[in-house]
Every structure is written in structure tokens, then in C-alpha cells.
Amino acid sequence: MSNFFGLLQNENMKIYRRSSAKVMIIILLGLILAAGLIIKYSGDQPKDDPHWKQSLIQENKDLNKQMDSVKGNKQATDYFKKTIAINEYRIDHNLKPHHGETLWTFVEGAAANMVLVISIFTIIVVSTSIASEFDTGTIKLLLIRPIYRTEILLSKYISALLFTVVCLITLFIASWLLGGILFGFGGAGDVYIGYANGAVYQSSWTLEVWKGYLLNCVSLFMMVTFAGLIASAFRNGGLAIGLSIFTLMASSIVVNILQGYDWVKYVLFANTDLTQYTTGTPLRDEMTLGFSLAVLAVYYVLFVLVGWAFYTRRDIKA
Amino acid sequence: MSTNAEASKPAVKLEHVSKRIGRKTIIDDLSFDIYGGEVFGFLGPNGAGKTTTIRMIVGLMRMSHGNIYIQGHSIRGEFKKAIAQVGAIVENPEMYKFLTGYQNLVHYARMIPGISKERIMEVVKLVELQDRIHEKVKRYSLGMRQRLGVAQALLHHPSVLILDEPTNGLDPQGIHDLRTYLHKLSREEGVAVIVSSHLLSEMQLMCDRIGILQKGKLIGVETVDDFIEKGTAKVRIEVDDARIAAQAVKEKLAIDAILPDETTIELPIEHEKIPVVVDTLVLSKIKIYSVATAAKSLEDRFLEVTGGKSVE
Description:
The complex is a heterodimer.
Chain A: H1 4-16, H2 19-41, H3 52-69, H4 74-93, H5 103-136, H6 139-142, H7 149-183, E1 191-196, E2 199-204, H8 205-234, H9 237-258, H10 268-271, H11 275-278, H12 289-313
Helix pairs in contact in A: 1-7, 2-5, 2-7, 3-4, 5-7, 5-8, 5-9, 7-8, 8-9, 8-12
Chain B: H1 4-8, E1 10-21, E2 24-35, E3 39-43, H2 50-57, E4 65-70, E5 73-74, H3 79-83, E6 86-89, H4 101-109, H5 117-126, H6 142-154, E7 160-164, H7 172-189, E8 192-196, H8 200-206, E9 209-214, E10 217-223, H9 224-229, E11 233-239, H10 242-253, E12 258-261, E13 264-269, H11 274-283, E14 288-294, H12 298-305
Helix pairs in contact in B: 5-6
């Protein structure tokens, strides 16, 4: 593994010297810009409320009333409790709430949607990286070096995941700058107020945004690995890209349809959304974070082993 | 470079190598040695298994049976040690077209420890690409790609050089230069060079020994000179009446003659038999004006050995 760094350099060179990588970054930036402009100019931004404390006190009174009316519904009750707790925290700590879009809410909003776009890009990158060498025949010159095929495949996989990191950093910086330009850099110093386990906590927005990226990247990670498996097994980039993106898109629909069956919890996509354990409600009551992580691990090991076996054991006839 | 001890040890050794795909045997029990300091040519019609054999030597394909050793290291058991000795082009030299020639070489250099920037420029100069090495490979001609392919194969001073169809796309001057360089590598640096080519005349000039492959079997390994001299020669005799002459030879010696025209017969006979034929013709009262043996090319011999199948 002494020259593994060199292999990564090679794979990075092959990713970024292709025009497709540049096009992807440009599309990503374009989408962020479009999202920013639409939010900014599609409606009136609510004005800041100078008497915000009174407003919050009034809001909490209303919420308490509403909560009484939905007694028995745990989900709704939890939601009201959370909102009330956060409002009280703001009043106590003199933290003015923002109405409308701020720099950080824009950054946070961009995360979920753009990670899906980045997933598609990374699927394309990993599939091309693995399969195109078979199409062009360069695989023959690549595999006759004193390097095991396992190391080559690993360098391709890691460099594709590094591409995801590059995209995420680009996304973070671009949405932060655009958020500042469109909604004011004044919001950059805001603190994040969250609610977990019945208590309100303060945190930094940067940390929370990256936590969001990470949670959203679970399905990216699984689908990129799946694309790598298909590309290794069939040596066909188009098939790997098509199948992975289709699966990624169809997953939520399929999970919804199958929601009633208890075995749905073993389906990969029932477990990729880990936010169901942090901010949402689990798909099925018996599912826990530990259970989902275990299911994900099993799928992951399966994908990696099968992809690896195909890549390292099959003859090169291209 | 090569001491006597090294010269007597094969650089590449094939031991009962077989390759089966499904029920079909593609390569059947190949065994032969290739030594440092020689240029070895692989000959055979398409589908004979030349490329499959080369792919097994460089580890791109697994063998079903047997083993291949490169400088004593098994390509199966000690892949890294074995392949580190090899520089190769397998079929066409396919490069990354979206990278420059130089970036391609840097790419391969990173995969082998100890290749300096100076060494990269050295091989670039050697294949005379220095003027266009920083252009994208997209814009290279076939000949330039071939030269870049040779450059990547030579980067790490391999002791075994394998070139599949190396003259493909080269102009006559390029072929001549490559030939000179391959001879230099084998003679002066003791490199074992393995080439395959469909240009038989080219092989004749380039190779010291050739191995003929047909339907996955090795028909023979011989030096180029032996290969051409062995077997039957073609004798051309100018006579007064070719028909009568042919009849005489057939009746008395049971040899079938070819009649290119009215006054010439051609006989596929061994060198020693020429006087017997001449005697027979003289006794049959046939006038002989000239006797000539046609110099045989590798191509004639090849067609003879492989049963007249064309090479390409």
C-alpha cells in the first residue's frame, strides 16, 4: 500500500480532467443559484417583528390550547411540545426568531435537495471510473502494474467518495456565500436552537448543517457502493448509472407501498433515512437506530464483497 | 547486463499452460521458455490463441492449468514480483484520450516505485514525442499512440518486454527504428522481447526465434533461420515442354509438379533431391535450360506449417 497515495492521485486526475466533472460542478452551482433566486424573489419576505417576545408568548398560549385538543396523538403532541419549548427558550435567552429566509436556513434547505443531486453525480463518477476502462481498453494497461486489482478498485471507490466530499464543500461554501448575498451576512452569527429528548439545546449552525449532510449521505453512500458493484460485475457504465439512479428514485415509492408489511424493515431503503430516528418518526415502531445500522452494514458488506469478487477474479477480455 | 548464469535461466517460462472457457479449450498444454537477450515472435492465425497466451503471461487472464514464471516468479503466486519485470502493450495501446501524453506517462509512473521525471522525459525522447507530449492523446495519430504505448512499456526498465502487434500504425521509418531499438534492448541490455505480428516479413527481420501457435497448440518453436530452411524447398526448372516433364516426374518419382507456364515446372522437393530430378528429366530426353531454387520466405513456410490458412 506504499504507493496507494499515487493511485488516488491517478484516479483523481482521471475524474477531474474529464469535462464531465467540470460540468457537474457547474450544474451544482447553477442549481444553488436558481434555488436562491427563486426563494428570494418568489414571495414577500416577512418583516421582522419588533415585539417578538409578546408574539411568542401569545403563540405558546395558542399552541397549549391546540395541544389539549389533540390529546392522545403522540406525534402531534410532541410537535407542539417542541415548538413551545423552543419558543420559551428564545424568550428566556433573548434570542430573536427570524421570519423568512436567512443565510443559515438557506444553507440548511439546500442540503437535502442538493445531496440528492450530488448522489447522482457520484454514481456517474464511480460507474464511469470503474466501467469506462473496460470500454476504452485502458484496463489492460492499468492492471499489468505491480498493484493488486483490489488496490485499484479501492482507489477508484475512495476517489469517487472524495468527489462527494469536494461537492459537499462546494455546496457548503456556495450556499453560504449566496445565502449571505441574498439574505444578508448579518445572519451568519445566528445560533442553532434544537430540541432533543425533551430538552432545548444550542448549537452551531455549521455543525448542524454538516450533521444534515452526513445523514443525507447515507443513501448516497449505499447507492454509490451499489453502482460500483454493478459497474464491476457488468463492466457497463450506462447500466450501473441507470440502475442505481432508478433505484434511488424509486426507493421512497416502493418503501411507501410496502410500509404495511413487517418485512419492509429489511428493505435497504427503509433504513437509509436515519433522520427518522433524529427528527422524524420511524417507519415501523419496532425499528431502532441500531437495527437500521445493522441492516445497512449487511447490505454494504454484501455489495462490497460481490463487487470486489467480480473485479478481481474475472478475466480481462476487453 | 546479462551474465552467463542469467542467460541460461529463462526470463519467461510457460509450464503446461492450458486455458479452458466453458468446455472449449482455448490454449492446450503450452510449454516453452523465452530467454533474456532474444527477440521471440509469436505467430499464428487469428483465433489461434496468441493474445490469450499474452494475456495469461501478464496476468489479465487466469490459466486453467499450469503456471507461468517471469524471472522465476509465478504470475499466479507472486503477481507483484513477476509483473514488475514486465513492460507490455496488449493489443492496441489504448491510452486516456482526455489526458495529455505526458499525463498518461505520469499516471503509469506513479504505479511503479522509483520512476523519476527524468526517466519519463528520457523515454519520451526515445520514442521522439518530445514536441507533442503535452498535447491531449485525442489529437495523436495511430503511430504516435503506438510510440506512446512503447514509452509506457519501457518506463521501468523491464527485463521482459511484450509487444502485441508493435508495428501497427507505424510508417516504414518508424518500423525500422523500432526494430533497431528492440535489437539494441535485447542485445545490449539482455531484455527478453516478445512480439506478435501479422506482418511475417517483419517478424523475419525482427525475431531470433518464433513460436507457431495453431488452434491453441504450439506447433513448434524454432529459430527463424531453421524455420525457413527446414522442410521442402521450391525448385523451378525451365524445360522445353513442361507437360512431358511433369508427366515424367510423376511417373518415375511420384512428385506432383505445378506448371506456371508451357516451359516451366515447379516442384516442392527437398534440396538433396534436386540431382535425382535432374537425372530423371535428362533420362527422359527433356531439355533443361535452367534450375533455380526459390528463396522461401517466412510466409511460405508459415502457410505450409499451418496448412495454408491465411494469417489475418
